[in-house]
Here is the input.
Amino acid sequence: MKRFITIILTLAMVLGLAACSNKQSTATEEPDEEQETVGTDATEEELTSLDGGWELVRGDAAALPEDVQAAFDKATAEFTGSDLKPVAYVAYQVVSGRNYMVLCEATTVTQDPVTSYQMLVIYADLNGNATLTTLKDFDLTAYTQDDGQEAIDGDIVGGWEIPEDHTVAVLPEDAQAAFDKAKEGFTGNDLVPMALLGTQVVAGRNYAFLCAGTTVTAEPVTRLQVVVVYEDLEGNAEITSICTVNPADFNE
Here is the structure.
């Protein structure tokens, strides 16, 4: 009889251990579900990818992050001929290290200085070294016309003027106000300004912005774009031109 009771108790212990094991197995399945959620978020983030594996920097891009500023300083330390001032941190590319794409204002070190935009690509390796690998003209006028036509009809009083101060991390007040007005009622493309590229006096004023534009669709696509906003003399504003910039063109 005692032997029979012992067998019963042994079976009960075995069944109890099996039940505990099953609970532990069930508990370990929950993190897998969380991992799947993280994977979904990562996929959505990848929608900011551009041609050539570049990842667009959305939002305010005027101030370089500390690591990008360090790479910029190292890569341009011995650069001569022009003074380079960062305007916008545009995109990055993961390689064996990282490539950084930075739009700069370049002013020639000459008796009669000339200022223009240059797109820089800087390679930062895994050992903290940084090299300037590409320096190409960024022609604002190539992106401020629509189908070969002037963005605004009428007489052009002056050409595009580069802002005097690109060191501020926010848009000038008048430019921000014009951009906000122009976006009212504008649909289909969620535009986030990165930097003011230039202004142009017309019958009113044109503003050219470097923007991250994301299509408002079931499968959003984000692009680097130059957006022209026209503000008339009464303070009304509208978007008159949107041109897409391919970062891969500056990395050849």
Notes: The domain at 51-137 is CATH 3.10.450.10 (Nuclear Transport Factor 2; Chain: A,). Helices lie at 2-45, 66-76, 173-183. Residues 2-45 form the longest helix (44 residues).
